[in-house]
Amino acid sequence: MKICIYPGSFDPVTNGHYDIIKRSAQLFDKVIVAVGQNSSKKTVFSTEERVQFIKKVTEHLPNVEVESFSGLLVDFVKEKRANVIVKGLRAVSDFEYEFQMASMNHKLAPNIETIFMMTSIKYSYLSSSIVREVGRLGGCIQSLVPEVILEDIQEKLRP
Ligand code: ADP
Predict the structure, then answer these.
(1) Alpha helices in 3-146 (DSSP H)
(2) Angle, CA 15 vertex, CA 10 and CA 19 arms, to 5°
(3) What is the dihedral of CA 71, 36, 60, 134, to 10 degrees?
């Protein structure tokens, strides 16, 4: 069984993330979306909220699971008996950081492979931080996040 882990902060999950989840679910037997509980990174949405949003959005995808994790990503990957980490790549600006992370994870766990999926062009400008910013300023985020969680997100971000 081919299992991949798709990690991130998902603060909140966007249409760009959802696109990567759907495409991964077609390539792997199981996708585990791993929501980081990184205490040094302050998030707007709680871990529980971030997990629940993704669960709601992926409800109809039978081979997608959602969990939170803390500590080293490679340890979580091993615990889940997976050996692939999936990451999305938007622009050149993502490359340096992702290259560094993938290299370090490879050093820590040589049997775990990181694979990159190019973002769909229409989501290449999209990030959780832009959603938070537009939402906080009262702008429309309708085409940026999945419809089923739109209201919950708007509610929390609204000024
Ligand atoms: P963000 O950078 O939006 O805060 P995360 O840290 O939650 O997102 O990112 C988790 C993963 O999803 C990363 O691999 C990131 O590159 C990828 N990702 C984020 N936004 C998009 C997008 N619009 N299209 C494709 N991949 C994306």
Answers:
(1) 15-27, 47-57, 73-79, 92-108, 128-136
(2) 100
(3) 180
16 Cβ partners below 8 Å, 6+ apart? 88, 90, 119, 120, 123, 124, 126, 127
User: Could you identify the atom of ligand 1 that is nearest to the CA of residue 126?
Assistant: 23
Catalytic residue, chosen from 41, 42, 60, 81, is 41
Is 90 an annotated catalytic residue?
yes
pTM above threshold 0.90: yes
Residue nearest ligand 1's atom 16 by CA = 88
Which residue has its alpha carbon closest to ligand 1 atom 10? 8
Catalytic residue at 50? no
Q: Which two tokens stand for residue 47?
A: 């871990």
Model confidence pLDDT, tens digit, residues 105-141 = 999 999 999 999 999 999 999 999 999 999 999 999 9
- What pLDDT, on the 0 to 100 scale, is given for residue 41? 77
**Residue 157, SS3 per DSSP:** helix
pLDDT at position 159 over 80: no
Atom of ligand 1 nearest to the CA of 125: 23
Query: Do residues 108 and 28 make contact, with C-beta atoms less than 8 angstroms apart?
Result: no
